[in-house]
Amino acid sequence: xxxxxxxxxxxxxxxxxxxxxxxxxxxxxxxxxxxxxxxxxxxxxxxxxxxxxxxxxxxxxxxxxxxxxxxxxxxxxxxxxxxxxxxxxxxxxxxxxxxxxxxxxxxxxxxxxxxxxxxxxxxxxxxxxxxxxxxxxxxxxxxxxxxxxxxxxxxxxxxxxxxxxxxxxxxxxxxxxxxxxxxxxxxxxxx
Length: 191
Hints:
By secondary structure, this protein is of the alpha+beta class. 38% of the residues lie in helices and 23% in strands. The chain has eight helices and ten strands.
């Protein structure tokens, strides 16, 4: 997303070198990013944030649809401020709803399961599967250590100490990861 600048190489997106672009420029190209720890926006209501993410005015019903998709009762959240009154899990779900509203070409999720309870985790996997099926010509990159998320990946890129160790399908990569205690960063690329 441009938060960190690479020390070497290039980042190519849709055939264009975006290495030097800032966060705003990358977002305008259709890239969105969900942080491991979502940001709190004091003074902004959930409905307002969803409208900003969508880039257009959203009816209450449309905004509620995004909230319902992530397992939140829309009436309880639509007018809430995004501040410390929300739990980490609630913030994470609202953040995921904003990415759903954006419908970008590339959605990057940094450990989306962080702070999510077991019921929400199953819902999270369903959301990723729906995104893959509903948003055509888009990709999802998920940075995760969770086997259940890795199982839905079309491709896994195994990173060790910042270097690509191996790429392949879940069937090719998971057998060597399951049951190991090695600290592994795995990126799922869902098409």
